[in-house]
């Protein structure tokens, strides 16, 4: 996908969770046209109870990509660090349904995160990725993330502790 244009999905209009977002038809891959809608969880009205708290927390947002039938096929959550020394940093998590990977959805969600970060005056985005997730690492590096560290036994998954790679993206001035 390197060098290919990513689908342009609309980003939130402001850094506050629940900001209105306009839906837009998108070509999800060069071969198969599909409609994918990017919105915030609060604006989309989804019943994901864990994200309802975002209405009261203006330092975070959740963006979702939905298929035409309304199924959530991608999600990106982002949260600004509240410590005064690192308020310029936000942590994000990204997931795309296996059926919809390599169609530009992850990149479009990252674009939305960058737009949110700009409006929230965040200068740096951070994430953790499993070392074996080569496709995700390639997406992040192609987007401009760099590896900043390796965290040994950072997550407990299944019956074992697993490592994580710390990656970061500095927003252009």
Oligomer: single chain
Q: Can you tell me the CATH superfamily of one domain?
A: Gcn5-related N-acetyltransferase (GNAT)
The averaged pLDDT comes out at 76
CATH domain class of one domain: Alpha Beta
The share of residues in extended strands comes to 25-35%
Strand order of the largest sheet: 1-2-3-4-5-7-6
Total strand segments: 7
Written account of the structure:
- It is a single chain.
- The chain has a domain at 37-126: 3-Layer(aba) Sandwich (Aminopeptidase), CATH 3.40.630.
- Helices cover 17% and strands 33% of the residues.
- It contains 3 helices and 7 strands.
- The chain has helices at 41-44, 105-119, 134-143; strands spanning 37-40, 60-66, 72-80, 89-96, 124-129, 146-157, 160-170.
- The protein has a 7-stranded mixed beta sheet.
- The chain is globular.
Give me the secondary-structure topology.
Layout: E1 37-40, H1 41-44, E2 60-66, E3 72-80, E4 89-96, H2 105-119, E5 124-129, H3 134-143, E6 146-157, E7 160-170
Parallel strand pairs: 4-5
Antiparallel strand pairs: 1-2, 2-3, 3-4, 5-7, 6-7
Sum this structure up briefly.
This protein is of the alpha+beta class and 173 residues long.
List the main descriptive attributes of the protein structure presented here.
alpha+beta, 33% strand, disordered N terminus, 7-stranded mixed sheet, Aminopeptidase, 173 residues, 17% helix
């Amino acid at each position: 996908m390197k060098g290919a244009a990513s689908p342009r999905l609309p980003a939130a209009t402001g850094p506050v969770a629940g900001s209105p977002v306009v839906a837009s038809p998108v070509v999800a891959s060069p071969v198969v046209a599909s409609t994918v809608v990017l919105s915030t969880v609060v604006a989309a009205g989804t019943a994901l109870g864990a994200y309802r708290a975002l209405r009261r927390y203006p330092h975070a947002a959740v963006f979702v990509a939905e298929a035409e039938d309304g199924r959530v096929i991608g999600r990106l959550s982002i949260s600004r660090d509240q410590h005064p020394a690192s308020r310029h940093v936000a942590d994000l998590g990204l997931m795309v349904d296996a059926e919809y990977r390599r169609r530009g959805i992850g990149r479009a969600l990252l674009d939305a995160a960058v737009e949110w970060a700009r409006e929230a005056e965040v200068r740096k985005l951070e994430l953790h990725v499993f070392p074996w997730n080569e496709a995700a690492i390639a997406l992040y590096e192609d987007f401009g993330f760099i590896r900043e560290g390796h965290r040994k036994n950072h997550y407990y998954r299944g019956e074992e502790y697993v490592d994580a790679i710390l990656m970061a993206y500095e927003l252009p001035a």
